[in-house]
Amino acid sequence: MDETVYISVITVEEYLRGIYYLYWENKPTLGRKLMEAKRDLSAFEILPVTYEIAVKASEIEVDLINRGEAVSLADLIIAATAMHHNLVLITRNVKHFKRIRKLVIRSY
Known about the structure:
Low-confidence stretches: none
Distance between the termini: 21 Å
Strand content: 5-15%
CATH architecture of the largest domain: 3-Layer(aba) Sandwich
Strand order of the largest sheet: 1-2
CATH class of the largest domain: Alpha Beta
Helix content: 55-70%
Number of strands: 4
Radius of gyration: 15 Å
CATH topology of the largest domain: Rossmann fold
């Protein structure tokens, strides 16, 4: 049984930014790595940021700030995307995401 795996467009940007940082000075390698990334990312359904996700991210941020905590804007949007779509967030960054109430997280 095939299972659709989703990824936030914000996660895509973070992944691609890492490739640009690593290979910026070597344009042939950069081009090859970007093609590989495009191939790898084709395994996911990429979820865009919508108005509803922005609303959820704002709600999460205010809740965290009121509790004296914070996470990055990127992490807020990634969490809000998962919550809006009723998805489990799979991450190695449990430390940041575990502060977000009602977010279902799985570590890998």
